[in-house]
Design brief:
13 strands; alpha+beta; Phosphorylase Kinase, domain 1; Transferase(Phosphotransferase), domain 1; 5-stranded antiparallel sheet; 40% helix
């Protein structure tokens, strides 16, 4: 688990952020940034770079490795604090709260502004970078790809999807983003996998989710990672979250991804509520969603 660095903000000085930004810049070109290049990247003199490296390393914001040269790279804590600093400077975030959820590919915290919001740090590539690099197409065209790049691109992809489909689709309202971090409205509800749904409610809840997928397709995006873990259920309805793998409907595999989303979702409901759903092929359901004829889907059950 990556440590929460919000408490470190008050102890850091502007030169510390110059140093961290310099390391970040260098990591665009290599995994470990040569110590000799940091005076240029951070725009600090030699003495200041040495001082700031020691300060940031003691706080776990950078790490060093001695190879043919002495190299440095950001830790995820270092990347977190750069994103957090920018969001605070913009006035997007005024205070930091408790964790809302910690997962394999993201950490989510409550933050404070004009109302309670959620801050999501993307962690793609941190623990299983090679696997993510193979699977995520936004890394495919780059010879050198760091986990910083992978996480940042995931956040950009998710923010773009949220901005496009909101408010037509029931998703968290996007507020701001920087680097690998997204600020969005905090939402209520229980994850579908943990929700208590009666057999009599199952078809209705499934229809609601399928309707949101249809609206998302109409707005130009396919979720592409839909499961019982990416839907929240509340008295007010359903909400779809976690969109970093979303693809535009113009994507060559968009229809295939939509069918997979439908198959995963309906498969979950059929396992949990056997007997409530007829055996309708996922491709037929997906075709109805694509054709914007979702009203006909009910006849399939």
């Amino acid at each position: 688990m990556v440590r929460n660095v919000a408490g470190e903000m008050r102890d850091l000085e502007s030169e510390d952020f110059y140093l961290l930004s310099g390391v970040e810049h260098g990591m665009r070109f290599s995994e470990w940034v040569d110590r000799e290049t940091l005076t240029e990247y951070a725009r600090l003199d030699e003495e200041e770079v040495t001082h700031r490296l020691d300060r940031c390393e003691r706080r776990g914001l950078v790490e060093r490795k001695t190879m043919q040269y002495q190299g440095f790279r950001l830790t995820f804590e270092g990347y977190d604090i750069l994103a957090l600093h920018t969001l605070v400077e913009r006035g997007t975030i005024e205070g930091f709260g408790a964790p809302l959820g910690v997962g394999k590919e993201s950490d989510v915290y409550e933050v404070k502004s004009y109302k309670a919001l959620a801050l999501k740090y993307h962690r793609e590539g941190y623990t299983n970078f090679r696997e993510v690099q193979r699977e995520r197409e936004y890394t495919a065209d780059h010879d050198h790809v760091s986990w910083l790049y992978t996480a940042r691109k995931a956040a950009e992809r998710e923010y773009e999807a949220l901005e496009t489909v909101y408010p037509t689709v029931s998703v968290p309202r996007p507020i701001d983003h920087n680097r690998h971090a997204i600020v969005m409205e905090k939402f209520e509800g229980v994850e579908l996998s943990r929700a208590t749904i009666d057999d009599s409610q199952a078809v209705g809840v499934c229809d609601l989710i399928l309707s949101e997928l249809a609206d998302a397709y109409k707005e130009g995006f396919v979720h592409a990672d839909m499961s019982e873990y990416n839907v929240a259920v509340a008295e007010s309805g359903v909400l779809l979250f976690d969109w970093p793998q979303a693809v535009p409907t113009a994507h060559e595999n968009a229809d295939e991804f939509l069918e997979r989303d439908v198959r995963n979702l309906v498969g979950y409901f059929k396992r949990k509520h056997p007997g409530e759903f007829e055996e309708t092929p996922a491709d037929e359901l997906a075709a109805a969603l694509r054709a914007d004829s979702f009203g006909s889907v009910r006849s399939f059950w």
